[in-house]
Every structure is written in structure tokens, then in C-alpha cells.
Amino acid sequence: MIQITALMDNKMSENKALINEHGLSFLIEKDGKWILFDTGSCEHTIYNAHRLGMSLVSLDSVVLSHSHYDHAAGFRDLLENGMGSKDLFIGRNFFEKKYAFDGTKYTDLSCGFEREFVLGHSVTIHEVSAVAEITEGIYAVGGFPRVSGFETIPSRFVRRSEDGFVSDDFSDEICLVIDKGESTVMICGCSHPGITNMVKHVFSLFKKPVSAVFGGIHLNEADQKRMDETMGALFSMGLSTGGFCHCSGDRAEEVCVSSGLKACHLAVGDTIFI
User: Fold this and answer.
1) 13-60 pLDDT, tens per residue?
2) In angstroms, rounded to a whole number, what is the distance separating the alpha carbons of residues 247 and 169?
3) Which CATH class for the 2-273 domain?
4) CB-CB neighbours of 256 under 10 Å
5) Domains of the chain: which residue ranges?
6) What does the pLDDT look like over 54-93, one tens digit per residue?
7) Do residues 232 and 224 lie in contact, with contact meaning Cβ atoms separated by under 8 Å?
8) Are 173 and 66 in contact (CB under 8 A)?
9) What local confidence, expressed as pLDDT, does residue 254 receive?
10) Residue 160, helix vs strand vs coil
11) Do the Cβ atoms of 9 and 23 come closer than 8 Å?
């Protein structure tokens, strides 16, 4: 059995001893191996783990879905407190500076640390461009083709490259895939490349349906047309369970429930067993 616990989310669960914030972090345990997927934005993730009786001192792996602060900035706090893992999995171009641009000003959305900071703490960086096995049956996957025309990235997201500011294509985004035998389970950070693009790619790699998606699918800004197209595509590809949170928006969960699928919001302190 695999245990997935939300250490950070935008929303509070019934456990009011915990701290919620705009961010995401999941602690995953499988056969005695502990994987931290995203870290939230600060030390509050460490606090929540402590309150839940979970240790982040000797993790087997840390996986950062992309470099936005609300998913990755807490990694600095882990290392500075002697926690984390000696193995960090990230996507390519992770360390490029990322911003939100409103037409006049740029707001830094980056993780707040550089490659040298990570290496200075004797952490091995694994850059994932395709598929990397983290532990038996759990993989980091990146390099998502963009095939669904309706899945677009908001134009305010930009990154600073050698050529100046360019639209952010989120080439650094990766997800976790758990192979369950007859199907797979995906754990996502924000799904900026488009959740249907990501599910299609995982299906093409593993040749089996994605039965469950947990995490952020970035539909909080979607209009009704995109919501309908996205959820319809997910249902047609075999999705039966949705544990959405963070940037997903309440409507995604409501559509799942109204369609007869299992759905929930994974708030801080909530756990799924699969």
C-alpha cells in the first residue's frame, strides 16, 4: 500500500493544528521509501510534517514539479535545517528565473536558490527530460508534448533567458507516475503543460490508463469551455478518481462528483492510501 499525505495546500483540513498557504507538498511512502513531492514555499511544510509525526530528515528523494516558489522555495528551508535528501529530481531549465508580468512590472516567482546552493549541500541533481525511476514502481516523467490545442498557458507567465524575457513553456515541469499494474496514478504539481497533454504522454509511455490524478491541474482560471473539454478528455482516457487541490479550482472536483467519479480535495493533513 502507498500512502500519500498532503503536507501543504491552499486549504485547511479538519486538523486545525496545521498551517495552510498558497502552495503544494506531498509526502509519499512506499515499502519504507519516502519521497517528498514539492516543498511548499517555506518552513511551514516542515512544521506540518512535525505536527503529523513525520520526519523530513532522511528522505530517499525529493522531487520538485517545477521551479515556482509555491512548489519549490521550501527546499531551501529543508537543506538549511539539515533535512531533505541527497537526491533531487527536477526538470530541465529548472534554474531559469521565472516571473509574472502584468504589462508593466515583473513579479519574481522563482524558487529562490541556484544550482550552486544545492550542490553546496552535497545533493545530487537529477535532471529529468523523459523518464527516471525513483524507486521501484515510481517514476518522474517530463518532456510533455503539447497536443491539446485548448490547453494554453496564461501569457503573464514568462521566464528570463539569454535572449531576454520570453513566454514560459514550463519545460521544467515534471510529475510522478505510480505504476499500479493495470493502471497508473499521476501526482502533479500545477500541470502547466496541460493535464490532458500530460495524461496522454503518460499513457503513451506506460501503455495503460491513468486511473487517478492527485495534485494541481490548474483549472482555477479556466472558462467553461476549457473545463468541459479538459474533464471530458480525462474521463474518456479512463480517469476514475480525482484528488485535486492547490490551483485546480473547486469546479474540477464538482464536475467529477456530478459525473459519478470519486473526487476529493486534498487539503493540509489529508491522506490517500492506494
Assistant:
1) 999 999 999 999 999 999 999 999 999 999 999 999 999 999 999 999
2) 18
3) alpha beta
4) 23
5) 2-273
6) 999 999 999 999 999 999 999 999 999 999 999 999 999 9
7) no
8) yes
9) 85
10) strand
11) yes
- CB burial of residue 140 (10 Å; 0-12, 13-18, 19+): buried
| Residue 266 contacts residue 245 (beta carbons within 8 Å) | yes
Query: Residue 161's pLDDT is what?
Result: 85
Q: Which of 87-96, 117-126, 207-216, 228-237 has the lowest mean pLDDT?
A: 228-237
Please tell me the distance from the alpha carbon of residue 55 to that of residue 196, in angstroms, as a whole number.
34
Residue with cell 492527485: 214
Residue 129 in grid coordinates: 527530460
Per the structure block, which three cell numbers stand in for 242?
A: 480525482
Q: How far apart are the C-alpha atoms of 84 and 75, rounded to whole Å?
A: 8
Considering the chain, what percentage of its residues have pLDDT values greater than 90?
89
Measured over the CA atoms of residue 248, residue 252, residue 209 and residue 202, the dihedral's sign is: negative
Rounded to two decimals, the pTM is 0.97
- Which conformational region is residue 132 in: left (phi greater than 0), alpha (psi within -120 to 50 degrees), or beta? beta
Q: In sequence order, which ranges of 111-211 are alpha helices (DSSP H)?
A: 115-119, 195-206
Whole-number Å distance between alpha carbons of 227 and 241? 17
